[in-house]
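Pair request: fold both.
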Amino acid sequence: MCYDRGYELTEEECNVSLADFKAMYVDESGAVQRQRLAFHARPTPDMQKKYTPLPRPGNPEPAPDVGTIHVEFSPQPSVGIKDLKAFAQLLNEKNYHTGIFVAQAAPTSSALKIIPSILPTVMEIFKEEDLLVNISRHELVPKHTLLSPEDKKRLLERYRLKETQLPRIRMDDPMARYLGLKRGQVVKIIRKSETAG
């Protein structure tokens, strides 16, 4: 998922064989040591370009709205306020821009209230079962590509559209969550058409 978003990950990090995975992350009893699965990655220059807003008169050289991501897997069977506060504190201390917290079960509703309180740091929460299958590789899911602000501007000019006239994708859409989309971003969806071929 992080590779598909545009973070710097090597081929070896993305494609680990089962035997290597067991050697690195499984203990003698056969249980996965989730604490060892944590990693962080920097955005690629292409990703930084897609997340850099267009220059404006008050801001001629805008900074990209993306940074280092940290992914952590919860060893606890349930997630509460204490777990997410500790994760938020880690993101703040290490100065990570985005954090992905992968849990075995959905967090409590009171724990989810922490997420807006740590802005501008972005915290995303996924259940392990949601990440077992790479949905972007499924034959029924069309290819989604995030457009840069320049591409978005060209698209709107080409079709003489306002941003509000584009079709919308929900924030809780599985592909929107997978790609970590933010409000105002535009995604190009390439799929086979029954009428156009």
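--- second member of the pair ---
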Amino acid sequence: QSYCHRLQHDMYFLTSTSRLNEQVVDKIILQLNRVYPQILTNEEAEKFRNPKASLHTRLSDLLKHLQKKGDRHCQEFYRALQINAEQLFNDLPSRKILKTPDPTEIDTDKEQYMLNDRGPVFFLACFSVAAGLALFWYCCNSDTKVIGRARRILGFSPIIIRRHVRNICMLYLEDISR
């Protein structure tokens, strides 16, 4: 597949909202303007860096301009994209097609992202809620042996916890024992 066809295929992906920000687009334009061979002239670079036009319009015009210029220009755009936004470059639809020769094969990168899209804070929040519910259930069980064990565990845990939390736990234990 030629770079012009790949760029045409990736155009919607690149111009969709929040894929590329102003700074990355400016870096790409400057690289295409300053690196040998010079892909964009100074006038063209100024036109595509015009802050009065919307980012979507400037990026669409840039991609169309590069497609008209030929395969070498499109290839240099991909090189600039790889240097300035490597993660986005790796997520391009044309790259996924090149990586996955069998269309029935499962894309493990996408599957991994789908499973881990919430991040570590979400995991810690869920774990804290689960641990809190387990401790609450453990302490509120009507079995007297369980309450005695829970008091011993909570009695030793303030040694590790900060002073103000320790005081709250001790007041709670004194309240329960009455």
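Observation on the second member. Residues 120-139 form the longest helix (20 residues).
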